[in-house]
Write a structure and sequence with these properties.
heterodimer; A: about 350 residues; mainly alpha; about 70% helix; about 0% strand; B: about 250 residues; alpha/beta; Rossmann fold; 2 domains; six-stranded mixed beta sheet; four-stranded antiparallel beta sheet; 10 strands; about 35% helix; about 25% strand
Chain lengths: ~350, ~250
């Protein structure tokens, strides 16, 4: 019983007697669907607020940059989990591929960051596309195990290919040129945050557009009722392959950004923990809400920073409690809970 | 079999069993274009199984299925839908979180082949949206079309089942108990909507209420134990003593 944000608009728009369209003007149903994709003032406020760290927390810009990367990674998982209902426990595979692709590209070709991003996205998309043929055939537990297996496989491959990846020492010799030939990646993280935030925002715009496209509607259809889709003539597997490839490309971009802003790549980029963490972020924030991964990433990363300040070895303890509380009390994540609350308020 | 004169839907020697349980045996059917068939039979006669076989949700052990003369036995369900064979479900199988308009627009976009477009705006698919809206108006769902499916009253959800099937522009529409679970006084509305469908659509519906069957069907198929027991006009079926014995007489319908 959670009316999504747009549905309240329907009260104003819905008048069956004048439902027929005027000549030339968009019909009421079109106007209604357009209203669902319109920018909400809170969205604009959210993006303006992402600029605040530059002024309020100038000493925390490295953390802010990591948060932006985590948010981008969570956004990519949201496409497959939140919109198409595909649970993955191996999403770090694409993050890692992107990170190593960008790192190696800067080491052996050149250090221009944007071309590095494109190479990373292309590599991750390619591997994503190839594995999507397996992914699209399975659901539920089988799928979780397959994605987990693929993730572990890749992590082990990167570990044993030490000549290329540097193995457990990490990839050395990553050199990234200044952004636009001007903004150097410095120790304070000013450029790093500006760069990560800009990439996050641009990718977010693209994902937002995707969600409000006919393809986005079909993905929601898959999530809402996978078995009905063939009965409306939909080739769900083709949709899933496409969504998985796009999500892989975005995860690759996230990995590339972390490689470029930290100028190193470690095996941790491919680790199971990273796959699990991103899942936790998305569930905390609320899957299938576009902003869920973003909010989840902020909460997760800030909580980790704070908890590890208190007890460095036990910071997962705090995350664990937070996760349990959220899933027990707010099944649709923090944003889902907030939406429910505001819906109740506006009804009064 | 020439395409033009071929029946809208036909089966030849269709057979299916789960282990030792035979659910379909030697089913030969031929549904001419535009005819309205009722599929009746006692519980467990294999009525829903037959629809599942025709639509490809189940694969037969033997036999063939033809749509307009084309052998569709090997095709996936969605490929059959795209060729004009649609169905509804006995138990609502809808998209709970989508509004009625979104759900039908989704089905229209799938049919039009625009569902893979991730760079165009849904709201600019004006023809698809207007078509979806028009289908909803036709089924008298106009004032529900901006409501999430899960909030719709049950009877309206049953109509949305039909709306989703119509969005695929079917040549043959298989309705699995379209009024199942709907109170008697509302089930008439649903069958009125069914009766109003274009005469070009060949219909096959499963229904237990004999008043409804005799009122809306032009032909009746009686299925017993996975086999076609009898078929004919309502008058013939009503007069058939064997049918009365195994089906009409023995148990009270409903």
């Amino acid at each position: 019983m959670i009316p999504k944000s747009g549905n309240r608009l329907s009260d104003k728009i819905m008048r069956p007697q004048d439902a027929m369209s005027l000549a030339g003007a968009p019909s009421q149903p079109q106007e209604y669907l357009r209203s669902l994709s319109r920018w909400h003032p809170l969205e604009i406020a959210f993006w303006l607020a992402t600029l605040l760290p530059f002024f309020l927390f100038p000493t925390y810009l490295s953390l802010a940059s990591q948060i932006a990367v985590a948010a981008l990674f969570a956004l990519s998982l949201d496409i497959i989990l939140g919109y198409a209902g595909i649970v993955s426990l191996g999403h770090a595979a694409f993050f890692g591929i992107g990170a190593y692709a960008a790192g190696l590209f800067s080491k052996f070709v050149w250090g221009e960051p944007f071309s590095g991003l494109l190479i990373a996205a292309a590599m991750a998309a390619l591997i994503g596309y190839l594995t999507s043929f397996i992914i699209a055939r399975f659901r539920h537990l089988t799928l979780i195990m397959i994605t987990l297996g693929l993730g572990l496989l890749l992590a082990e491959a990167a570990n044993s290919a030490g000549w290329l990846t540097g193995g457990s020492d990490g990839l050395q010799g990553v050199k990234i040129w200044p952004v636009f030939g001007y903004f150097k990646f410095d120790l304070y993280g000013t450029t790093a945050y500006g760069y990560s935030l800009a990439v996050l925002f641009l990718v977010f715009l693209a994902v937002r557009r995707l969600i409000h496209s006919p393809f986005g509607l079909s993905l929601r259809g898959i999530r809402e009722n996978w078995t009905r889709m063939p009965a409306v003539g939909a080739d769900s597997r083709a949709h899933i392959r496409k969504a998985y490839t796009i999500a892989a490309a975005i995860a690759g971009i996230a990995g590339a950004v972390i490689a470029q802003t930290t100028q190193t790549v470690s095996l941790e980029a491919l680790s199971f923990e990273r796959s699990a963490d991103v899942l936790v972020m998305l569930v905390l924030g609320g899957a299938g809400r576009l902003y869920g991964g973003l909010v989840g990433a902020i909460i997760f990363m800030v909580a980790r920073d704070q908890f590890s300040g208190i007890a460095p070895q036990y910071w997962y303890f705090g995350i664990g409690i937070l996760l349990i509380l959220v899933v027990m009390l707010l099944p649709n994540g923090i944003l889902g809970g907030l939406a429910k609350l505001t819906a109740r308020w506006s009804r009064k | 079999m020439s395409e033009a004169n071929a029946p809208a839907l036909s089966t030849r020697g269709l057979a299916m069993s789960f282990g030792s349980l035979v659910v379909a045996k030697d089913i030969d059917l031929s549904l001419p274009k535009g005819v309205r068939y009722a599929l009746i039979g006692p519980n467990g006669a294999g009525k829903t199984t037959l629809i599942n076989l025709m639509t490809g949700m189940l694969k037969p052990n033997a036999g063939q299925i033809f749509l307009g003369g084309e052998d569709i036995t090997a095709l996936e369900p969605q490929e059959r839908v795209r060729r004009g064979l649609a169905r509804t479900f006995q138990i609502n199988s809808l998209f709970p979180g989508l509004t009625a308009l979104e759900a039908v627009t989704l089905a229209v976009c799938e049919r039009r082949g625009s569902s893979g477009e991730f760079w165009s705006k849904l709201s600019s698919q004006s023809e698809a949206i207007d078509e979806a809206h028009e289908i909803l108006l036709r089924l008298r769902l106009g004032d529900s079309c901006y409501q999430p499916t899960r909030e719709l009253p049950y009877g309206r959800q049953r109509l949305l089942e039909i709306a989703l099937a119509l969005a695929t522009r079917p040549k043959v529409l298989l309705l699995d108990e379209p009024a199942a679970g709907v109170p008697q006084e509302e089930s008439g509305d649903i069958f009125e909507a069914v009766a109003d469908l274009s005469q070009d659509i060949t219909l096959l519906f499963i229904e237990h209420d004999m008043h409804v069957v005799f009122r809306f069907a032009s032909h009746i198929i009686v299925l017993v134990g996975g086999m076609v027991f009898a078929q004919g006009s309502p008058a013939e079926i009503a007069a058939d003593p064997r049918v009365r014995e195994v089906y009409l007489g023995k148990r009270k319908h409903g």
